[in-house]
Amino acid sequence: MKDNILDTETSSARHEQSLANLVNPTELAGRKVLIVVENLPVPFDRRVWMEARTLKAAGAEVSVICPKGKGFDASEEVIEGINVYRHSLPLDASGALGYLVEYGAALFHETRLTLKVWRRHGIDVIQGCNPPDLIFLVAAPLKLFGIKYIFDHHDINPELYEAKFNRRDFFWRLMCLFEKWTFKTANVSIATNQSYRNIAVERGGMKPDDVFIVRSGPDLTRLIKQPSTKKWHNGRDKMLGYVGVMGDQEGIDLLLESLRYLVKDKGREDIQLVLVGGGPSLEALKTLAADLELSDYVTFAGRAPDAELFDVLSNADVCVNPDRVNAMNDKSTMNKILEYMAFERPIVQFDVTEGRFSAGESSLYAKDNDTIDFALKVEELLGDPEACKRMGEVGRKRVETEMAWPFQIPSLLNAYKRALKIT
């Protein structure tokens, strides 16, 4: 029997065929697009890669500038006809000085590579993907030459800073200023949800007609459900799955506290938690798991290839999102929620506005940051396979009929036509 490893070439071919059926190849014919993203490499950044592929399918010549990352180390390459330029970053920043060094280096390389792309390929539009809200500094001088700027609003940075550092100080005010200048520079803004659209209009001063919602809908041609397996269960009957960044604001510490309650207080020794993802807090979280005497009940898979990620999501009994309830997480759409839904997994999360909008009845919602209530919601689902099946089906149907990437394509292309004044 052939090993069930994701065939990336087949997945890519399926995606291209899907786009060919969805996109008019002349809509952006002859246009030159540059996408600048700082926090993740492509094609690892799934949202940016879907945008780039879609724009190419619409006839544009697309280039992307991004950082290097594990497995994405080539300085220049062409992937599926898209020109990818990558640069190094000096460190994984923490603290004000670290961010200053990282952002300064990124701006230098982004400016250098933008000029290279302009010279080699030409540029009609620059799409800047935050964080941080500094890419407008690269785009602003080129607007003098008729180049348009589209701001792709991934994160609300003032709220993100406050969530990380729990204060509103000089740097928080600086985040607000950068956000304001970003919106003033942008010809058009792309919002990932309605909350972000409201911020663009109310806080950013953009005209409503210049703001387009493009959700990070999953690409269902790529998310392939894998066969049933117990290899991630560590010999236990039940498995919880988590996919995402291992950072301070992601609430993994709350999740570990919930697991400790289930295992130690309620005697649920039949549960294994599998965490897929990397990030600055990974080692600290491993230490916390050990301190809570949970090391044997938690698998830290790290940043995994798609085949392993899909394996975990296909075989988790329940998927979890422990993002803390704060202004940042309340207004943000988490990609993991839509991916859980795409794999027909029931979800437990804290009750946040955009999380509830995305998941609807495919999720249970715990009280704000209440680790015991979160644990009890998980236990409720583990004891009710019929409810899990029903919730998974609801989530999958919502993705298939409303949230998947094909439903986002018209808005993305309309944003570009608005910026370029294409009627």
Automatic annotation (TrEMBL):
Record gene name:
epsD
Q: What protein name is recorded for this chain?
A: Putative glycosyltransferase EpsD
Which EC number(s) are documented for this chain? 2.4.-.-
Domain Glycosyltransferase subfamily 4-like N-terminal, chain residue ranges per copy: 47-222
Q: Can the keyword Acetylation be found in this entry's annotation?
A: no
Sorted UniProt keywords: Glycosyltransferase, Transferase
The GO terms describing molecular function are: glycosyltransferase activity
Task: Show the stretches that span the lipid bilayer.
Answer: none
Q: Which Pfam families match?
A: Glyco_trans_1_4 (PF13692), Glyco_transf_4 (PF13439)
Thylakoid among the record's keywords? no
* Top-level taxon: Bacteria
